[in-house]
């Protein structure tokens, strides 16, 4: 949650969300982390996630109240802790808005990249395609919900993967930076997914994923992200 002293940076809705996660050896992830950051694990395993969704009603708080916009995003993430504070570390983030990429890189030094993205929803089925030719980062797949909505139990893997209230990234100079996140608990559903191509993890500098992914769907949550700060 945002502290009383932390100002809001942007408010938005994260909608039509796919969570796809693969288990990794924690040592492989730790090698990629900056000094002062520790890989977080669940029952001895680290996880790399690919998460696609629509960012809707995006409202940077410096804009007039009625100004908002929408865009799709897909990101590659893992889970870490800094001084005992757990969070999400974004390894790469892709969107089709060049202006948003320039803004995120210039003002917040986050690893945003422009990608050609197609996101279409037909009934309960969502088709998501992201292609960035510069580094051969490609994701193609389709997904849908396959169960009733449920709330993850605190001790479950589903809770561990999704209930994160701080984001981390590494600035170009190696500094750790963070922003706190406020949202209600994710409403989750089992997901039916057909991943046709996924080179995003390889493009992020890790070994390509192996085995079957852990899959979840969510209709979404409303999010309030605090100002990005140097640690």
From TrEMBL:
Pfam families: DUF2071 (PF09844). Gene3D superfamilies: Acetoacetate decarboxylase-like (2.40.400.10). InterPro entries: ADC_dom_sf, DUF2071. This is DUF2071 domain-containing protein. It comes from Alkalihalophilus marmarensis DSM 21297.
């Amino acid at each position: 949650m945002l502290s009383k002293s932390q100002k809001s940076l942007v408010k938005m809705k994260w909608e039509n969300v796919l969570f796809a996660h693969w288990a990794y050896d924690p040592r492989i992830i730790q090698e990629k982390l900056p000094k002062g950051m520790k890989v977080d694990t669940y029952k001895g395993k680290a996880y790399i996630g690919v998460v696609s969704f629509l960012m809707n009603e995006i409202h940077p708080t410096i804009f007039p109240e009625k100004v908002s916009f929408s865009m799709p995003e897909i990101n590659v993430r893992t889970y870490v802790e800094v001084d005992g504070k757990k969070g999400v570390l974004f390894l790469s983030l892709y969107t089709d808005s060049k202006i948003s990429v320039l803004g995120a890189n210039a003002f917040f030094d986050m690893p945003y990249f422009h990608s050609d993205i197609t996101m279409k929803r037909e009934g309960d089925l969502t088709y998501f395609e992201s292609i960035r030719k510069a580094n051969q980062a490609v994701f193609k797949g389709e997904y849908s919900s396959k169960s009733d909505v449920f709330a993850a139990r605190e001790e479950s893997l589903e809770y561990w993967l999704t209930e994160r209230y701080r984001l981390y990234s590494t600035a170009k100079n190696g500094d750790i930076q963070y922003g706190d996140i406020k949202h209600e608990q994710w409403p989750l559903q089992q997901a039916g997914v057909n991943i046709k191509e996924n080179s995003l993890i390889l493009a992020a500098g890790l070994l390509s994923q192996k085995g079957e992914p852990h899959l979840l769907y969510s209709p979404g949550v409303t999010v309030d992200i605090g100002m990005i700060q140097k640690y």
